[in-house]
Design brief:
The protein has about 260 residues and is an alpha/beta fold. About 40% of the residues lie in helices and about 20% in strands. It contains ten helices and 14 strands. The strands form five sheets. A six-stranded parallel β-sheet has the order 8-5-4-9-10-12, sandwiched between helices. The protein has a two-stranded antiparallel ribbon with strand order 1-11. A two-stranded antiparallel sheet has the order 2-3. The protein is globular. The two termini are about 25 Å apart.
């Protein structure tokens, strides 16, 4: 068993591409879509790198793994690079997705139009709450979680999204894996244990906010005109957290 451990290289038709490069490819693709929408047909590596927030040397090295080197003095063909990156990421086919958890987060994910335009189809939504099961969300009828295995088989689900409370996330994960799902996107605030051969991507919004708070605090401390009274220690669960001006929710304090 392992916990969210990602292999250093990917396998299959794009074998040999470092995982760090794979993680940046969607960022490049987003930047390329933006350029295409503005009618830009060619882009220099420096421009694309700036749009993606990386340095141009790293971008050129990443794209070289795709066999794309651009043309000196001209740059990259935007449409062709979109095709190359999409093909490498496997976006030239539809990927059926099931969302487990039809609460506020699950509903927001189901209603996000960007999935369809990127090759992901929400095939089913599942929940265990009798008050939610049977309701309609984003043109989908919420099914009971007891139907998980049958839906995975019938819809040929490739990716499972877990948007449940932490207490039920591992059980849902185990059922998805047992049903044959080997790619999982986890929004629950815990690390899932999965067997070898199963890839898990964890999205923890509270951690991202805490990182932003760190940088905001550092910038504030560096300003000579910082607002008086900011940065006073705050008490959380009987202990002080430096730099806090208000109580921090227990679930965030536990991660601090």
């Amino acid at each position: 068993m392992h916990s969210n451990v990602m292999p250093p290289e990917i396998s299959g038709p794009s074998a040999g591409i470092p995982e760090a490069t794979v993680a940046r490819l969607p960022v490049y693709l987003r930047a390329l879509y933006g350029l295409a929408e503005r009618g830009i047909s060619t882009v220099a590596s420096e421009e694309l790198a700036a749009a993606a927030g990386v340095n141009s040397a790293k971008l050129r090295k990443d794209l070289s793994h795709l066999g794309s080197y651009g043309i000196r003095g001209v740059g990259y063909d935007v449409d062709y690079l979109v095709y190359q990156v999409s093909r490498t990421l496997g976006l030239n086919q539809d990927w059926p997705v099931v969302i487990v958890g039809a609460g506020n987060l699950g509903r927001a994910l189901a209603n996000y139009g960007g999935f369809v335009s990127r090759g992901f189809t929400i095939s089913a939504m599942l929940d265990s709450d009798p008050a939610i099961v049977g309701s309609s969300i984003a043109r989908l009828t919420v099914r009971h979680v007891d139907e998980l295995e049958a839906l995975v088989a019938r819809e040929k689900v490739a990716i499972g999204v877990i948007a449940t409370p932490a207490g039920s996330a591992q059980g849902v994960c185990d059922r998805l894996v047992a049903a044959g799902v080997t790619s999982i996107l986890n929004f629950a605030p815990l690390v899932l244990n999965v067997p070898e051969g199963v890839d898990v991507r964890k999205v923890d919004l509270s951690i991202e906010l805490q990182i932003l708070a760190f940088h905001a605090q550092r910038r504030s401390a560096a300003r000579p005109d910082a607002e008086p009274g900011r940065g006073r220690p705050g008490r959380v669960n009987g202990r002080h957290l430096a730099g806090s001006s208000a109580p921090v929710p227990p679930e965030l304090a536990a991660q601090a």
